[in-house]
Specification:
By secondary structure, this protein is α/β, with parallel strands linked by helices. Helix 1 (11-32) crosses helix 3, helix 2 crosses helix 12 (271-287) and helix 13 (295-306) packs antiparallel against helix 15. A hairpin with a 2-residue loop joins strand 7 (146-149) and strand 8 (152-155). 43% of the residues lie in helices and 16% in strands. The two termini are 26 Å apart. The chain has helices at residues 11-32, 39-51, 65-74, 91-95, 132-135, 139-144, 179-182, 196-206, 220-230, 237-248, 259-264, 271-287, 295-306, 314-318, 323-333, and strands at residues 55-58, 76-77, 80-84, 96-102, 108-114, 121-125, 146-149, 152-155, 161-166, 187-190, 218-219, 265-267, 311-312. The strands form 5 sheets. It has a 5-stranded parallel β-sheet with strand order 3-6-9-1-10. A two-stranded parallel ribbon has the order 2-11. The chain is globular.
Length: 350
Amino acid sequence: MAEQTVPGVDPQVQQQTEAFRRDYRAVKAEIGKAIVGHEEIIDGVLTCLFVGGHALLEGVPGLGKTALVRALADALHLKFSRIQFTPDLMPADVIGTNVIMENEAGHRAFQFMQGPIFAQIVLADEINRATPKTQSALLEAMQEHQVTAGGALRKLEEPFFVMATQNPLEQEGTYPLPEAQLDRFFFKLLVQYSGRDELKVILDRTTTGHKVDIQPVLDGAKIIAHQQLIRRVVVAPHVQDYAIRCVLATHPSGIFAIPMVNQFLRVGASPRAAQAIALAAKVRALMDGRFHVSFKDIKEVAIPAMRHRVILNFEGEAEGITTDMVLEKVIAETPTAAEGQPVPATAGAR
């Protein structure tokens, strides 16, 4: 079937968009060979990958978090490493360290030995089991895509993508991530239990000798090109303002705050939340065949972009309120049009 030309859109951009959609679906199909269900989680992880962000996956053990990351690594032509976080893990175990090496002439000199952070896809497994000192070793790498080690600044190879997992139930031997590090994750994705039909497929695949053959379908150069394309998607001023007001609505005592926010939240979302919402919404728009972001795109990505960036107060925790409950209310009660701001007829409510 021939591709239809969209009026007003550069044909080259349209070709790049079609290539992005094909690659997105190809990677998702390869992951689907190993992972049953979890459509929203897979979409969330791929969104983080294609915008250059990092993903935090939270769920009880055995739900396929690590398997999903491994499947993604197998579907990409990228360097992969896994860091199993434990309480005795040190920053040097993550970043690397200088060691004394002796050459053939017998001369000794320091040589930097790279740690597992020097990869393009890094699985930080059970990140909340490491001490804050070791957790902080990831901060510079996640934000700046570089590390300072051995007295030198060392750039990480692009694209660089961290996927961390954590168990929300166990408390013994765990160290909750500090807010500064949580804010550096693009999305926080909650991995839920599989259903009856999904469990049947999982058992059929894992207990009958079935072998998963995941083929690499995408390389780093294409990923970087797609990341650049996504930033060219248009966000109309009134749609952008809606995303901004959704973020501002999470600020207690703020001008856009709703009663539930004032009652149950201690800290609202940061500007990084607005950046994450805008970029993730652009991915949704492209996958829907559009070159502009809609209100629907904003609503679909707002919660995973903000759930780890807002903090409940004591009353919220005591009442058993979750950040998702508050954010769902924020999205529902924040109007798409600001007071005195007309919405263009072409915007719609998509």
